[in-house]
Amino acid sequence: MINLFSQDPQEKLNSLKKQLESAKHDTTRAMIYLDMGDVFEESNPDSCIYYYLKAKNLASTSQANNGKSVVSGRLDILAATGERYIGLIYNRIGEYDKAFESFKKAIVILEKLKKSAFKDISTDAHKELAPAYYNTGTTLSNKGDFKPAMEYFKKSLEVSKKFDNKRGQNMCYTYIGSTYSDLGDYKLALENYLKALKIAEEIEDYEGVAYILNNIGNIHSLQGDFDKALTYFQKSLAISKKYNFLQGEYYANANIGSVYNEKKMYDKALVNYFECLKIIEGVGDKYGTAEICNNIAELYLDTKQFKKATEYFTRALSLHEEIGNKDGASSLYGNLANLYGAMADSTGISSSEKRNLYLKALEFGEKAYTIALETGSPRRKGEAAKVLMTAYKFTGNVSKALNYAEIYIEARDSMYTEEKANALAEMDTKYQTEKKQLENEKLKNEKLLDDELIKTQSLENKRQQTVIFSVIGGLVLLLVILFIIFRMFRQKRQANIDLEMKNEEISAQRDEIEAQRNLAADQRDLISEQKQEITDSIHYAFRIQSAVIPDIAILNHVVSDSFILHMPRDIVSGDFYWIGEQDNKIIILAADCTGHGVPGAFMSMLGIAFLNEIVSKENITSPAEILNELRNKIVKALKQQGKSGEQKDGMDISVITIDPTHNHLQFSGANNPLYLIRNNDLVEIKGDKMPVAIHDKMESFVNHEMAINKGDNIYIFTDGFADQFGGPQGKKFKYKPFKELLVKNTHLPLTGQQALLKETFVNWKGSLDQVDDVLVIGIKI
Length: 781
Known about the structure:
By secondary structure, the protein is α+β, with helices and mostly antiparallel strands. Among the domains are: about 20-145, Alpha Horseshoe (Serine Threonine Protein Phosphatase 5, Tetratricopeptide repeat), CATH 1.25.40; about 285-415, Tetratricopeptide repeat domain (Serine Threonine Protein Phosphatase 5, Tetratricopeptide repeat, Alpha Horseshoe); about 550-780, PPM-type phosphatase domain (Phosphatase 2c, domain 1). Helices cover about 70% and strands about 10% of the residues. It is built from 25 helices and twelve strands. Strands 1-12-9-6-7 form a five-stranded antiparallel beta sheet, with helices on one face. Strands 2-3-4-5-8 form a five-stranded antiparallel beta sheet, with helices on one face. Strands 10-11 form a two-stranded antiparallel ribbon. Strand 10 and strand 11 form a beta hairpin. The radius of gyration is 38 Å and the shape is elongated. The two termini are about 25 Å apart.
């Protein structure tokens, strides 16, 4: 649910309608309907559902959806996506039964597609099951059906682990923890929260960190440790404010208010509560509104303001019943029972009024207990049993009072044993200890680095001292020699024999110098010869490299215009392009190998050989799969193992696959992006932040798909153009001016753009050396 172009909603909708009119294939039209639904995601749920439903129906009933092709599989996945998006809107507005039905329909489609004979369809459907299972679990959890919700969260977690989806794992662990908390198992709840927190910190999901810290605070609050709970809530609030996470601010403020309430700091609590109510009503969150109304009512109950307590309890109950939240309704019926019990115990009440109030408390308590049994929540069961125990005791029904007393004690002990409290504290301490150990290890490594730097500096100082002493010694020696020569000169007239010996010595020195000069000339000639041989070899390597690079003419029957600007820094290049045709699709690639010159050329020819094998022999056309397979072959060929100090030679690559039959384009990038210029608007689709080589991050590359229109300009390139130093101040050209240059001249024929790019590059470089190979490929659809 991501839009490529940033526009006003109406402009965006009009633009999508124009695209819909020109779309030639049902897959494209279905995707556009999904984008049209996204326009109304926040503002108009009915319109949102209308367009999602059109996408689903079109994908399901398309003539191309015959169940026998990859296109048919893609349409089925789009139908499942439309169904799931409809469920998300129903879930957001509190229509949980309708949401559940939509999610179940999506799951049925995807589980069938998971068994498809087409590998791409099977894999994509399997991946899509993770959010479908997760969404179903959240809906069941919102209804209070915790045990079936748990099963769906565990299924989603299993799929997320299979495909190494860290964000999906984080979300599943968080909701599994929340569900265990609702079921009263705080030890398992905290265990899953800590797993989620570790992943959230690892992937820098700070909204997730704030949400999880808030949930951990809730566990400590339920255990009665309000000081520790307050610490976690305040951490959550600080992170939410720092990253402008409005919902996180709401939850943290609400829970801080609850702690103030428990500490009988009622004025502070009310300030937090009403601030939260203002935020949550503004975004139309019925569940959040109900929860904060309940907190306000509990405060008024504690301060014996029974009329206000009744008003807010009733409002909260109405909202929970409206959205079908059984757990919330059970809690509110229990709270209303407590309210009538407190009113009965207040002063100035006659015996008959007291009895009637207790009978009212019994009525609400029985409703709370019945729903608690349905949801299986031991916490709600215990709360309702406690209310019923007190009410039956007052009305004189001792046997029922004793029965509910036993139920209350059993529920309480199942959740709040000293052993569980110790386990929670132990897990929390273990987490804090591990975190502290990591920090200490980091400080230790930094100290070792500082010590090594000091040691290196000491050795450098000693070396410099040695050089200085050598120079001084040499100067002293020179002075001594000059003194001796001077003495010999003065004695020349009186020592003919010494003079004759000196002449012979000079003659011998002359012969030695002559011999050395001849040797130097021979070595110069040898070096010149070797240089010429090396240069000839490099020129021959250039001819080989040129021969293995495919001809651009293969594009002429697919695109209306194209160019390739290739400017090696040396004779041979580490940047290369590759063009291939397979299954009526054109694959175009721009690559930047590690290094340039001869080393880069070796890498480029290795890459070209592997690409010929991957596309032509293995029949792979998906850009992401091409990069995954190329990375595997590079790592294997170079025997890369990811060890410290190991050379990590590889490539940064942009790959596109054009399907001219369906006006469809796929893209995947390793550190390099793709630029698409349509109607003078430039869209940058970024590649993954990892190379085609061994790397700390070895995830699968992401495949981006989109419809293309006639007149679209597409550019892929390496970093040589943007990284060139030049201009008046000798700075890098950079990507922003590069984008502006492309957009400004997009109206020119591509041959004209090529000439302009080359002229701009040469003028920018001026008299400076070219720092890297340059490769830019432009294509007009």
